[in-house]
Amino acid sequence: MTAQPDFPEMPHLNGLARSASTLGYEIVDLAGFLDMIERQAQDQRIALKALCDSAGDVELANGAVDAVATDLVQSVARTYEDVGHSVELMRELGSRSRQVAAWVQHLSDRSEAVGKTLAAVTTNNSQIAAIAMQVNTLAINAKIEAARAGDAGRGFAVVAEAINELSQKTKGAAAEISSNIETLTQWIAALGTEADDVAEQAMGVISQSAETDRALGRMEQSVNETKGEAARIAAHSVQVKEAATAFAPNMQEIERSIAQTAAGIIEAHERIESMVDTSEEIVQSTAALGGMTDDAPLIDDVRRRAVSVGAAFEHALAQEELTETSLFDRTYVAVPDTRPLQVVTSYNAVLDRILPPIQEPALSLDARVVFCAAVDINGYLPTHNTKFSRPQSDDEVWNTAHCRNRRIFDDRVGLKAGRNTAPFLLQVYRRNMGGGTFKMMKDLSAPIFVHGRHWGGLRLAYTF
Q1: CA-to-CA distance for 250 and 156, rounded, in angstroms?
Q2: pLDDT per residue as tens digits for the range 183-223
Q3: Which of 86, 117, 120, 316 pairs with 341 at a CA distance of 20 to 30 A?
Q4: Quick check: 61 and 317 in contact, CB under 8 A?
Q5: Is the previous residue joined to 382 through a cis bond, with omega within 30 degrees of 0?
């Protein structure tokens, strides 16, 4: 084990070391808070950008609505005029239908009266035919009597003959009149029947036209109400357009303000990172000058274990279990279907065998120790402690906490631990435990050299 420098006890220097360590804690905690604020600011910018895009979409959509509302108002106005015209036509048609029905009813009544007149004519004509028959009989009798009277009755016979001829003509005329009256009666009867049918249909038309008239009236009212609603839509569309127009500059101002805030946060974060580096340098310097803190025993241990790892790698090379090319292989092959992503390289099998005997005992060194693991200069951690090398499940949050081997930790702490060549490096950081949970940790690391070539570093992480 490397001995501590033989310096006299320096209480002020020890206090400075402890203060530097505490300062590092506070700065890293503040940096974590700024990380959270920065992520929230970025999320807000993204959300605001989406909101601005949505506002633009609303403005475009409202323009389309405005155009449609204008067309709708005009269309409804035209429809209202057409419906009004149809209502007038239907009312005029109903009036005419009622006139036709009245005329047909009057025709039916007149047909009935004509039928009665024809019936009376038929009766009278029958009486004329009967009288003609009687006159014909009298004329025959007169002719007989005139023949008996001889020359004295000759003049009377001529008259009787004339009367007979007249009665025959009257009989024929009466028969012809009866025939014509019968035909006319049939026509009048048929006309009356048809007039009744037409009258009934006309009444149906009148009834339907009245219902149609009422329906058109309701349609006219509905169209008129729609016209009013369309007008209100157009008015509201104008209001929305005015509101959207006024809304856009405010959104742009908010976006500029958030962008400035985010830029300020980034600048503050960079300055905090610089302060973290400064606090770490103070810790390094105080330790080099002999300042003692609670970290001193752990610093000695991690430096000793890093040397042991380097020696184990050199032994594996000597035994030809590894080649220098494979040991310094930086080709990382992704393991399919792993979340978080795990990667493998050519030396995993050998390191899985030689690293645990060096790393696992460190977990019993101090109750605060959480893990001890070697990383290469890219932050790749091939072999972790057993408790952090569980097979992955379907739960990514659980995997993040329990499946930490075969992963690349290329964050600030991981990369600095792997690339540091100073005797040791003490860092303070927030460890991501998955599911949005973080834990404040100290990370002690010492470089690993293989035949003088820098391979990476051994990390010893523990809580405050």
Answers
A1: 135
A2: 777 777 776 676 677 667 666 666 666 666 676 677 767 77
A3: 316
A4: no
A5: no
Task: Give the CA count within 13 Å in the CB-facing half-sphere of 267.
Answer: 6
The residue type found at 434 is: G
Instruction: Quickly list H helices, 355-421.
Output: 356-359, 396-402, 412-419
Q: Please check the confidence at residue 293 and state whether its pLDDT lies above 70.
A: no
Q: pLDDT digit string (tens) for 400-413?
A: 999 999 999 999 89
CATH superfamily for 61-248 is Methyl-accepting chemotaxis protein (1.10.287.950)
- Strands, E assignment, 293-336: 333-334
Radius of gyration of the chain (CA): 60
- Rounded to the nearest 10 degrees, what angle do helices 11-149 and 154-288 cross at? 180
Task: Report the alpha-carbon distance of residue 51 to residue 261 in Å, rounded.
Answer: 18
User: For the chain, what are the domain ranges?
Assistant: 61-248, 294-463
Report DSSP letters for 437-459, one per residue.
Answer: EEEEEEEEEEEEEETTEEEEEEE
406 Ramachandran zone, left/alpha/beta (phi>0; psi -120 to 50): left
How many C-beta neighbours within 10 Å does residue 221 have? 11
Asked if 302 contacts 446 with a C-beta cutoff of 8 angstroms, the reply is yes
The CB-side HSE value for 313 (13 A sphere, CA atoms) comes to: 27
- 294-463 is classed CATH 1.10.357.10: no
**Distance in angstroms (rounded) separating the CA atoms of residues 405 and 345:** 12
Calpha distance 457→377 (Å, rounded)? 7
CA 404/CA 95 separation, integer angstroms: 94
| One-letter amino acid for residue 377 of the chain | I
Name the token pair of 277.
């580096």
